[in-house]
Amino acid sequence: MLTFLAVGAAGYVTDVAAFNWFREQPVVGDPVVAKVAAVGVAMVVTYLGNRLLTWRELGSENRRREVALFAVFNLVGLLISVLALDVSHHLLGLTSRLADNISGNVVGVGLGTAFRFWAYRRFVFVGAGSGDLDEPLGSEQPAGQGPGQREQDRGGADAAAAL
Q1: Lowest-pLDDT range, 46-55, 83-92, 145-154?
Q2: What are the residue ranges of helices labelled H in 2-121?
Q3: How far apart are CA 35 and CA 106, in angstroms?
């Protein structure tokens, strides 16, 4: 998770810097358009960071599928950020640079990051032959043990935690 957060921090810095640069360009005009462009730049940074660092040990049987899912989940994360920014800027009338940065780059990015972490871990960077998508990363079974055996080995801790 620490590597994911470090990659996310690099993406966040890229996103904020690009957003503020695009926001000041006369051809862009609207902060929502600036946010979309900034996220496009940050997506490249975060995909490479996550593929090369966060989930480097996981192979990928289908890189196109991985990239497509990464893009889809980033677009959902972008939608979350844009909705926060759009509500603040256009609906509430908070149009200052500070208000745009708080709504788009703090509230929106925070909510989008939580969603993306869950989605990447569950659907994107699952690795070749990683098995059950419901199992968290790093919870691989020793050879010859099924999910029920692992619960028994831990004294039913998983079952008790689920209650």
Answers
A1: 145-154
A2: 2-23, 31-49, 63-86, 97-102, 109-119
A3: 13
pLDDT in tens, 75-124: 998 899 889 999 999 999 998 989 998 998 899 988 988 898 888 888 88
Structure tokens at 129: 């032959």
Scanning the structure block, which residue is given the tokens 């004294």? 155
Count Cα atoms within 13 angstroms, Cβ side, for 106.
8
Mean pLDDT (whole number) for 127-145:
45
Q: What is the CA radius of gyration of the chain?
A: 19
First to last CA, the chain: 26
Q: How far apart are CA 141 and CA 163, in angstroms?
A: 22
- Taking residue 70's Cβ as centre, other Cβ atoms within 10 Å add up to 21
Least confident of 1-10, 105-114, 120-129: 120-129
Residue linked to tokens 């699952």: 126
Q: What one-character DSSP code corresponds to residue 142?
A: P
What confidence tens digit (pLDDT) does each residue in 103-114 have? 988 999 889 888
| Closest CA relative to residue 20, chosen from 9, 37, 30, 34 | 34
Report helix angle 63-86 to 31-49, nearest 10.
150
